[in-house]
Amino acid sequence: MRAFESPERAGVPRLHDATAYASALHLWQTGEYSACLEMLASHDDGLSLALRGLALLRLGHPAEVIALLHDHRTDDLSERVAVLNVLARAFARTRDEGSAQAIVDELTMLAPHAGSMSADIARCAALVAWMRGDTDRAERSLEAAFGDATPLGRAKYYELCSWIAARRENYSEQARLLTLAAKQLLDDPLSDVGLFADVTRTLATLNRELSLPEIAPHVERLITSIPWTSDLSVQHFNAVRDLGWHHALHGRFLPALRLLHEAERIAPSRPWCIMALLDRARLASWAGEPASSTASLYHALDLEPQVAWDRTDDEERSALLVAADVCAEVDALRAHALLERFQQVAGGFGPLMIARGDRRLLAHRLSVAGAVQHAMGSDRAAGDSYRAAYVIFGEVGYRWRAAICASRLFALTAERSWLALGAEHVRDYPHSWIARELATAGADVDDAVRRLTPREREVLQGLLSGLRITHIAGRLQISPHTAKHHATAIYRAFHVDSQSGLMAEAKRRGLV
Q: 445-512: what CATH class?
């Protein structure tokens, strides 16, 4: 979440070079945070320090903000309020909620004398209360900020309200409020390009995860309305890839492919490049292009060891989780290693996973764990993981993800009730690969074949053709270990214990 004070309302620094401050402020407003820091590097008055702190926060360096501002002292009220506002946000971002609340208490005492900066104090108090999980107190604090009737003030108000809705797991309401914030920012997009980028990026993600036909047409317009800078590259990358996912979920593969190629081109770091390649691998698989899918996947896997994951942020580390999921049907051991690496380095707290108790992250982890457990032959554990993920995804409204869990549970259990549940969750996505997979699974085919995953069906074809496991692995470009796991699952589905027994049973059923 990104909600910060309005530095342009804090006054003018008491410096001989106020022009430099004004220029730095313009850079901050337009999303050029690195250039802003460079311009103010030698300035140590309170307002300049506060602006440097805001730039550092936007770049994701709260610990540096605390080091910069913690010992600053001034008798000037506007400087003191500006510094404390930024410092409270930095402590909140580092999860030092006690220190953040102590600063908010001091700011609250200063609020009656703060004039136009009182709205910034109210927003700061709301942010810290939200971080502490007290949404009611956050709402009460925001009431004082509603008096800021400027387009930027209204946008900040709606954005903070949206995150309160998200904390309550009302994600459709979050999307509605962010749409209101975006409309305010469209009136003056250069007042805070970073806020505009954050709002757009989050809307794009919600548009991917939820069925929001009233919002979908606006997302592409918002993405093209922002003057993206290099300091906003993460937001730009994720907004573009999320829009690509939205098209893919509705069966529009050509625009999806175009956007995912664009996301790969603008990927701001190696982990994000890996994520883009994994997106392309999935899209190619859903479009029925296994060779292209495998090539993209192995390109991503080749890059993965080159990343120092312990030095990445939580969002970048999510690429490990996605890699484990995509890799599960190709190389079970590698998928297991990727999941273990994610569990070792993940902190689980990012701008979209808004709180330590955010159940969406838990559901993602459970879903991937299920895929890896199944690939490793632990079907009972996989079933437990998928069921837990299914419940959470359904409760938070991530319906197409719940449908995927239902499809995988049917493959594990052959219980047709999962097909009905999956079909209900995916009814807003009739042209998606998920709907097609559920319809195919429910077709009038052999029960044993129906229970197999798409990759297991490919292995089945090889086994029935008389190929050895090593030859099947080479043909499908998966590891022999994973091919053996798939064969074991196939034997179990057909109630046999060997390839010769499988061929005999398949003949008996008329499959060959």
A: mainly alpha
